[in-house]
Amino acid sequence: MRHLILFGSLILFPTFVKAQDGDKILDLALAPKSIVKINLVGYAMLSINANYEYMVGPKTSVGLLGGYKIPSTFTLDAIGTLSDETMTYTGQITPEGLFLNPYFRFYMAKAMKGFYLEAFTRYYSYTYLVPYDYEKNGGNIRANLDGTATGFGGGLALGVQLELGPRIYLDLNTGFGVASGDMHVQTNDPNLDAADYQKIKKNIEENAADADVRIMFLGKTLDGLVAGANDSSAWADINNELFPLFRGGICLGFAF
Questions:
Q1: Distances in Å between the alpha carbon of 22 and those of 27, 33, 142?
Q2: Cα–chain-centroid distance for residue 170?
Q3: Is 250's pLDDT higher than 70?
Q4: Helix or strand or coil: residue 58?
Q5: Per residue in 147-206, pLDDT tens?
Q6: DSSP sequence for 175-233
Q7: How far apart are the first and last CA of the chain?
Q8: Smallest Cα–Cα separation from 217: which of 241, 197, 196?
Q9: CB contact set of 83 (below 8 Å; sequence gap of 6+)
Q10: I want to staple 208 with a disulfide (CB 3.0 to 4.6 A). Which of 15, 40, 176, 225 is the partner?
Q11: How do residues 112-137 score in pLDDT, each as one tens digit?
Q12: Among 6-10, 69-73, 252-256, which is the least confidently predicted range?
C-alpha cells in the first residue's frame, strides 16, 4: 500500500507543480498593468500633475510624472545698491512652468505592490517676475525683472505602493538627488537709460559675491554669475548651477 501511495504521489506532484505555475501565470496575466495617479502633495503646492506607471516585468515598472506649476508667490531677499542711487529687490517672485519626472522602479516582491527602489530624473522650465524698487530723479520707481529658469537632474527614492481596494492604490515616496540649472533675469524698464543699465551691470558684478538672493528652484548661491548690458537692457545669468533635488509624494491612483 505504501508503495502505491508513493507511486501515486510521484504521478500527482508534477501536476500539482504545473497547477501552481499556471496559477502564477494567470495571476500575472490578470494583474493590472497600468496605474494613473495624482500627487496630492503637488496639488497642495499648486502644481497640476498626473502620473502614469506601467509594469514592464514581474518586479519592475516605468513611469512618468508631469505637470504644470501654476503661479504662486515665494519670498526673494535683497540684492545690493546702485552706486549713487538705491536699488533693492524687495520681496517676492511668482514662478510658473512645466516639469517632467520620468522614473524606473524595482519592487521587492512584485511589480506595482509593496516596497520599491526608484531611480528618477527631473526636468523643469519656469518663467517668473522679480519685483524691485529704485530711486531716480528724487522719485521711487517699482519695476520687474523678467526671469527664466531651467534645470535637469536625477536621484534615488524609496517608497511603498499599497492596494486600498479593487484597483485603488496609495503610493508614498521620498527621495533625493542633484540637478544642474540655468537662470536668466533681464530688465528693459523704459524709465532707465543706457547709463542706468551699465550701472546695474556694474552693481550686479560687484555685489554678486555678497548677494543673498533665494530662488526656490536654484537655491541661493550666485557663484559664476555673469552680468551684461546694452543700450536698452541689463541682465544676469547663472549657468550650470548645482543644487539639491527633493522628490516626495502622497499619490492616489486607479489601476487598469
A1: 9, 19, 73
A2: 20
A3: yes
A4: coil
A5: 999 999 999 999 999 999 999 999 999 999 999 989 898 988 888 889 888 988 887 777
A6: EEEEEEEEEEEEE--TT--HHHHHHHHHHHHHHTTT----BTTTBS--TT-EEEE-SS-
A7: 52
A8: 241
A9: 199, 202, 203
A10: 225
A11: 999 999 999 999 999 988 777 777 77
A12: 6-10
Q: How far does CA 118 lie from the centroid of its chain?
A: 15
C-alpha cell at 122: 527631473
DSSP 110: B
Return all residues near 71 (Cβ < 8 A) that are at least 6 apart: 46, 94, 95, 96
Pairwise CA distance, residues 11 & 18, whole Å: 12
CA 213 to chain centre: 21
Closest CA to 57 of 21, 31, 22: 31
What is the SS3 assignment for 164? Answer: strand
- Cα(242)–Cα(238) distance, integer angstroms: 10
Q: State the residue for C-alpha cell 524609496.
A: 158
SS3 label, residue 246 = strand
Average pLDDT (100-122) is 97
The answer, as to whether pTM is greater than 0.90, is no
Looking at residue 82, its pLDDT comes to 46
Smallest CA-to-CA distance from 57 within 118, 116, 107, 102 is with 107
d(CA 235, CA 145): 9
C-beta separation of 160 from 142 below 8 A: no
Which residue in the block uniquely carries the three cell numbers 536699488?
87
Residue 29 CB neighbour total at 10 angstroms: 8
